[in-house]
Design goal:
The complex is a heterodimer of chains A (293) and B (362).
Chain A (H helix, E strand, L loop, with lengths): L11 H27 L15 H8 L9 H8 L3 H32 L5 H11 L8 H11 L6 H26 L2 H9 L4 H12 L1 H17 L2 H6 L8 H6 L2 E2 L2 E2 L1 H30 L7
Antiparallel strand pairs in A: 1-2
Helix pairs in contact in A: 1-13, 3-13, 4-7, 4-10, 5-7, 7-10, 8-9, 10-13
Chain B lengths: L3 E10 L2 E11 L4 E5 L6 H9 L6 E6 L2 E2 L10 E4 L11 H11 L4 H15 L14 H14 L4 E5 L7 H18 L2 E6 L2 H7 L2 E6 L2 E6 L1 H6 L4 H6 L6 E7 L5 E4 L2 E4 L2 H7 L6 E6 L4 E3 L8 E13 L3 E8 L2 E8 L9 E7 L4 E4 L7
Parallel strand pairs in B: 3-8, 3-9, 6-7, 7-8
Antiparallel strand pairs in B: 1-2, 1-4, 4-5, 9-10, 11-12, 11-14, 12-13, 14-20, 15-19, 16-17, 16-19, 17-18
Helix pairs in contact in B: 2-3, 2-4, 3-4
The chains are: A mainly alpha (293), B alpha+beta (362).
């Protein structure tokens, strides 16, 4: 067997390139982790002496704490209301996920299977809504939500906003996936005596699990990571979500980079965990429709 | 058990009419095959029985009940789909149970029915597997199983064998036929394969453009096709056709490169048609090489062999006669030479005569 044509080109330049890319990607994260575990509030890893040597300089950019301490984590959770903010984020994100996924599933199924007036217009409207930057909606949303509905600084208000911003993408995603599920399955179920509801819950949804997982993750992250809307609507400190709370560690007169870093790590843990948990669905969900198996 | 009756059924999509004025009476316990080329409306007719397509006009009844407006679940029919349509996330047992479970069948009864159906179809060892772990033939068996566990009054098959390889198709064909014989459930079977139609059906309905061209027992349709379409559709290789004119004395059929006497058995048909254009149909097995035993009157015909297809037990020869191509079924030990003239004989009593204008049988 002869080598494939591509095999004659040496691999090492590619590897070098990839290693550089990896270092560039994870270096900032390592820096944050270092600050979080340093026990200090400084943004620097180490303080440079008056006349720094090469080794001092190298030390200053090596992402490894000089002293190792979890005090930033304990302080953030006990002295600061960070636990409360995370709880707010969790409530809002989970509610967004439940509301968003439920509505997106049902809407996506309807768009995929039924023919009704406004079907095309509806799908286009969803698409168009994705074309505008989120900040554009800030003022109208504020007027509607805070001034008209009086839902400022409330979980429900934020859930409403997040769900409405997440739903268009989720509907498109799910509709695309539902389209790949053969109609024969539903017809077989119809003949087996199933009602539309039974077909949806017992045949379609179980088959759409990968797509549902992706949309659930997307909805959750919409709520969990969002900053601008939350900062606008939540003006009582107790109602802050985690990203808004984080912002107040650095700014004004305080520069608590240690708290900020520790908080950032705590906030990213649930997302990382979710990604790992949903990994097997994500791969099949994101490639959904490309290969019909 | 029940028959299925179509009364003036029509199906239109906007201005496009798929089926118009369809009347068909499928008898109780009968195996009825709807056969025709794609787009002839056979699948639509089947789906209308199932309730998956609405009727634009007319009525369908199953047994004594008019079911035209009933939802599929209330029609007491089960359907086997071309691509099996097994629920991929359920095991085979769950697939078979699904319909029973929806109908709230007690567990003990459900187990009995599922095990019985699995036994009949030889899929008992597969019950705990998922559909994707099964081969095409096994999946099709499960799909049939899902239909029989429900003990419906009518089975509907929508081209169930077209996704299987040739060998498996022959095997499943026999199995479905045996199964229907055993269960005696009224069956409507849709296929585009005339061999399936011929071998499986008690009666077959040959369809074209949404209309039934001919309804009858397979051999009846084969031996007395009512028009040119049915004649060429049923039988492999298809029937040969020659354009001919009835001679002035009404005793000869004359066309490009041939002149055949009208046999006594058909003389009644050509009387009074002097000078008329006809289409003469001739099945390949009635165009035989010189020297073979012949039935009834015969006449010589010389053709030029263009291609041969040896099948083992016989040879199909494709030959030219003026501007017409003819197929002949020859015995395998007499393979003709390609490009050489072949002296053949036409069994005149087996000729089919059609009016050239209407394409209807005389």
């Amino acid at each position: 067997m002869s080598a494939a044509p591509g095999e004659r080109i040496p691999h090492w330049p590619l590897h070098v390139l990839l290693v550089v890319a990896v270092v560039l990607t994870i270096y900032p994260i390592l820096w944050v982790v270092t600050i979080a575990f340093s026990g200090n509030q400084s943004l620097a890893i180490s303080t440079l002496p008056e006349d720094p040597t090469f080794w001092d300089r190298l030390r200053a950019i090596t992402p490894w704490p000089q002293t190792f301490s979890v005090s930033n984590f304990t302080s953030v959770m006990t002295e600061q209301p960070f636990g409360r903010w995370i709880l707010n984020s969790a409530i809002v994100s989970l509610a967004t996920t439940v509301v968003g996924v439920f509505l997106a599933c049902t809407a996506g199924y309807a768009f995929s299977r039924f023919n009704f007036p406004g079907r095309r217009t509806g799908m286009m409207a969803f698409l168009v809504s994705q074309m505008f930057p989120g900040t554009l909606m800030l003022i109208p949303l504020y007027i509607i939500l805070v001034q008209w509905l009086g839902l400022g600084s409330s979980h429900i208000g934020l859930v409403l906003v997040y769900a409405t911003t997440a739903i268009p993408f989720c509907v498109w995603m799910l509709k695309g996936y539902f389209d790949t599920i053969p109609k024969d399955l539903e017809e077989a179920a119809l003949l087996d005596g199933a009602s539309s509801g039974q077909i949806f819950w017992r045949i379609i949804l179980p088959l759409a699990r990968p797509a549902v997982a992706v949309t659930a993750l997307f909805s959750f992250m919409t709520g969990w990571n969002e900053f601008i809307l939350a900062a606008t609507f939540m003006d009582q400190e107790l109602m802050y979500t985690a990203p808004v709370g984080l912002r107040f560690f650095v700014g004004g007169y305080s520069q608590q980079w240690g708290y900020f870093a520790a908080g950032s790590i705590i906030v990213s843990i649930p997302v990382v965990a979710l990604f790992l948990f949903l990994q097997k669905y994500l791969v099949s969900g994101l490639t959904a429709g490309s290969v019909k198996g | 058990m029940a028959g299925v009756n179509f009364k003036n059924v029509a199906k239109r999509y906007g201005d496009v009419s798929v089926i118009e004025g369809l009347n068909l009476d499928v008898r109780d316990h009968e195996f009825m095959v709807l056969v025709g080329p794609s787009g002839c409306g056979k699948s639509t007719a089947l789906r209308m029985i199932a309730g998956l397509e609405e009727l634009s006009a007319g009525d369908i009844s199953i047994g004594e009940r008019v079911v035209s407006t009933l939802p599929p679940k209330d029609r007491d029919v089960a359907m086997v789909f071309q691509n099996y349509a097994l629920y991929p996330h359920m095991t085979i047992r769950e697939n078979l149970e699904f319909g029973l479970r929806i109908r709230k069948t007690p567990q003990a009864e459900m187990d009995r029915l599922v095990n019985e159906a699995a036994e009949i179809l030889g899929i008992t060892p597969l019950l705990e597997r998922k559909p994707k772990q099964l081969s095409g033939g096994q999946r099709q068996r499960v799909a049939v199983g899902r239909a029989i566990v429900r003990q419906p009054s009518v089975f509907l098959f929508d081209e169930p064998l077209s996704n299987l390889d040739a060998k498996l198709r022959v095997q499943m064909r026999a199995e479905i036929k045996k199964l229907q014989h055993r269960l005696k459930t009224t069956t409507v079977y849709v296929t585009h394969d005339q061999v399936e139609a011929m071998t499986m059906g008690h009666r077959i309905a040959v369809m074209k453009d949404g209309k039934i061209q001919q309804l009858g027992a397979p051999l009846e349709v084969y031996e007395r096709p009512v028009n040119v379409f049915v004649a060429q559709f049923i039988g492999t290789p298809p029937m040969n056709f020659l354009k001919a004119t009835v001679s002035a004395d009404g005793r000869m059929l004359e066309g490009k490169g041939f002149s055949l006497p009208v046999p006594a058995s058909l003389a009644g048909l050509t009387v009074g048609r002097k000078g008329q254009q006809l289409v003469v149909g001739l099945r390949p097995e009635h165009l035989v090489e010189e020297g073979r035993a012949l039935r009834g009157e015969s006449a010589p015909l010389t053709v030029t062999v263009e291609m041969i297809e040896p099948l083992g037990d016989q040879v199909i020869a494709h030959a030219r006669l003026a501007d017409a191509l003819l197929a002949l079924k020859l015995e395998s030990h007499r393979v003709p030479e390609v490009g050489a003239p072949l002296s053949a004989r036409v069994e005149l009593d087996a000729l089919h005569l059609f009016d050239a204008a209407t394409e209807q049988r005389l």
